[in-house]
Structure formats: structure tokens, C-alpha cells
Description:
The chain is mostly beta strands. Helix content is 8%, strand content 24%. The protein has one domain (5-106). The strands form two sheets. Strands 6-1-2-7 form a four-stranded antiparallel beta sheet, with no helix packed on it. The chain is globular.
Amino acid sequence: MTSRLTVNMLVCGSCGWGVYSRARHDFRRCPCKAVHVDGGFDYFKCGYDPKKDRFVSLILRVKRETLYNDWNKSRDKYGMVPPEKVPKEVGGDHEHRDHPDPDPSAGGQG
Ligand SMILES: [Zn+2]
């Protein structure tokens, strides 16, 4: 059985690493220490520069329990994503709507 979990990953604009908090007391920093996340799924805290850094929704095929144990037992398999594995962009998050749709009922020429 596979479960999907969406985490809010903070991607550092300086070193390119992505970090996310796995548990309430899991405080994580990227390698260059420019960004940090904390609070896990209970409350979300972070420090970053909105001009440089960005958030990415990361879907993990694990349970919360797995992340918690990963933190609790210091396995550190999760929580940090190297630059080459960070998704380049968030798919379908924003769409362009510069020109309004033409109104087909306007006019009146049959
Ligand atoms: Zn960094």
C-alpha cells in the first residue's frame, strides 16, 4: 500500500538545496545555512529570502510516520534534496491570462 504525502519544501536560491521539516522538532538548514525550516506538519516555520528562495510542493510516497522515524532515529534519508533532484518548476501552479476571451454573443450578425 502506498500513501502520498505532500510536503512544503523550501529551495535555497544560493546553494540550490531543498529542505523540508519531517517532524515537529525537526529543524533543518540547507548546507549554506541561508534558509531553514521547522515545525513539521503541526506548525510550519521557516526563514528565507522571498527574493531568492522559493517553495516547491514535493510529493513523497511515504507516511508521516516514516518521516518521523527518519528524523527520530537520525537516519536522514529524507528532509534534504540535492540541487539536481529539486524540481525545476511547480507544474500548473500559475497560468497566463493576458488576453480576455472574445465574446461570441457580441456583434449580432447572423
Ligand atoms: Zn543554501
